[in-house]
Amino acid sequence: MAYYRCSTKRQGQSGLGLDAQRSAVAVYVCDGTLLMEFEEVESGTKADRPALDEALRQCRMRGAVLVIAKLDRLSRNVSFIAKLMDQGVDFIAVDMPSANRFTLHIMAAMAEQEREMISQRTKAALVAARQRGVVLGGRRGEHRIEDHAAAGRARSAQVRTIKASRLADDHLQIADQIRRDGIGSVRGIANELNARSIMAPRGGLWSGAQVSRLLRRASTGASA
User: Fold this and answer.
1) Angle at 41 between CA 37 and CA 42, to 5 degrees
2) Among 14-18, 21-25, 202-206, 209-213, whose mean pLDDT is lowest?
3) Backbone angles phi, psi at 218, to 5 degrees
4) 165 is catalytic
5) d(CA 37, CA 55)
6) pLDDT tens-digit series, residues 135-174
7) Which of 7, 98, 197, 219 is the catalytic position?
C-alpha cells in the first residue's frame, strides 16, 4: 500500500509533490506488487487524515506493508508517529528504507524527552515561585505503586480489545459489501475474503466458521 501526502492545495493541484512521491515509490517497489495507492492534500495543522486511515485499514486487513516516499516531514508529526505505532502496521520509507517501527519508537522517545524537558522547566519555574512566597497546589492524596500497576494492566487489556474490535469492524464492512454483491453463504464469503487477500483475525485463511462468528458479532458484540 502506498501513501502520498503533500501539504498545500497548490502542490496537490499541480501534482508536482505527489508525482515525485509516486515516482520514488514506483522505483522502490520495482517488480513488487503495489496493491493500492492513497493520496492526501492537507495543511500542516490538520489532524484528520482520512486517506491515511483507509491505507492503514487496508494494511491491517491484508497484512500489507505501508510504503511512503518521505519520512522527514512525517517524522516530526507526533500524531502520525502515534497513529502508526497504535495501528501495528509495518511500513517502509523510500528515503530511509532502514526505518521501521523501532525507528518510530526512537522518534516517540525523542518527543517524550522534549516533553520531559518542558516538565523540568515548569518544575523549576514552580520552585522559583515558591521561593517568592507563592502558594501553589494542594494535597495530592496517597499514591500506591500497586494501583498504578493495576491501571497499566487494565490499559493494556483495553488497547488490545480496541485493536481487535477495530479489525473486526473492518472485516464486517467488507463482509457486508460481499453480501450486497450477492454472495450470502459463510463459505462463499470466506472464499471471497481469501480471494481479496484479506487475512483472518489471527492470520492465515478465512473459514466458514470464522465468518459465522464475525457475522454474529454484529448483533452480539463478540469478537470473531
Assistant:
1) 135
2) 14-18
3) -60, -30
4) no
5) 8
6) 766 555 555 666 667 777 888 888 778 878 888 888 888 9
7) 7
